[in-house]
TrEMBL record:
Its cofactor is Mg(2+). The gene is thiE. 2-[(2R,5Z)-2-carboxy-4-methylthiazol-5(2H)-ylidene]ethyl phosphate binds at residues 140-142, 172, 192-193. GO terms for molecular function: magnesium ion binding; thiamine-phosphate diphosphorylase activity. Mg(2+) binds at residues 77, 96. This is Thiamine-phosphate synthase. The keyword Transcription does not apply. Belongs to the thiamine-phosphate synthase family. Residues 13-195 form the Thiamine phosphate synthase/TenI domain. Keywords: Magnesium, Metal-binding, Thiamine biosynthesis, Transferase.
Length: 208
């Protein structure tokens, strides 16, 4: 579809903010990177998350660590962070800045969009995106306002309609069910708790 992002970079897509961590988020990120995650999304959002300058400062540190590993650094939602953090891209949901606007603002950045149902898929300018986040595949307690789980059927449905589109499954994905998401046609799995709550991060990333 484009040269900004290869679908292989979706394979192990780690998402995190300091609110997801019991320990030092920078150390956790470093462990996940050295274990082999293929993309990172900075999602500093929700209860207990940092705002303003604190968010920016943490983002800069995380950005620098990802750069050392040559792993794409994507920001969640916040268009104000893209340039200051020199992010490789931005991931948005259905109620964030519209994709048309986003593509005008950031012609050369990776743009990811969440889609949860056929209606959203039909009404989204897919051709302006670099990948779709499909979910929540399974029930998740990590995102308080997550929609109803859509199952791997949703991955199959998108894959059926768009054979070549980069798709990453998200929501409730663990080392035990990741394979089913890939088998359904996703190029990768996007996870928070499967890594942030893992006893052994290296092992978790390997099993994913
Ligand atoms: N987005 P975990 S589900 C950030 O469905 C996010 O769009 C979702 O966390 C969506 O891997 C989700 O711990 C939370 O379930 C993913």
């Amino acid at each position: 579809m484009n040269t900004r992002f290869s679908s292989g970079q979706l394979r192990k897509y780690f998402i995190m903010g300091s609110q997801n961590c019991h320990h030092d988020p920078l150390q956790l990120l470093e462990s996940a990177l050295s274990a082999g995650i293929t993309s990172f999304q900075f999602r500093e959002k929700g209860e207990g998350s940092l705002t303003g300058n604190d968010k920016l400062v943490l983002g800069r540190k995380m950005r620098a660590i990802c750069a050392r590993y040559g792993v794409p650094f994507i920001v969640n939602d916040d268009i104000e962070l893209v340039e200051p953090l020199k992010a490789d891209g931005i991931h948005v949901g259905q109620n964030d800045v519209p994709i048309n606007e986003l593509r005008q603002l950031f012609p050369d950045k990776v743009i990811g969009l969440s889609v949860s149902n056929k209606n959203e898929l039909a009404n989204s300018p897919i051709q302006l995106t670099d990948y779709l986040g499909a979910g929540p595949v399974f029930n998740t307690t990590t995102k308080s306002d997550a929609k109803q789980a859509v199952g791997i059927e949703w991955i199959k449905a998108i894959r059926n309609e768009y054979p070549d589109l980069p798709i990453v499954g998200i929501g409730g994905i663990t080392i035990n069910n990741a394979a089913s998401v890939l088998e359904a046609g996703a190029n990768g799995v996007a996870v928070i708790s499967a890594i942030t709550k893992a006893k052994d991060i290296t092992e978790a990333v390997q099993y994913l």
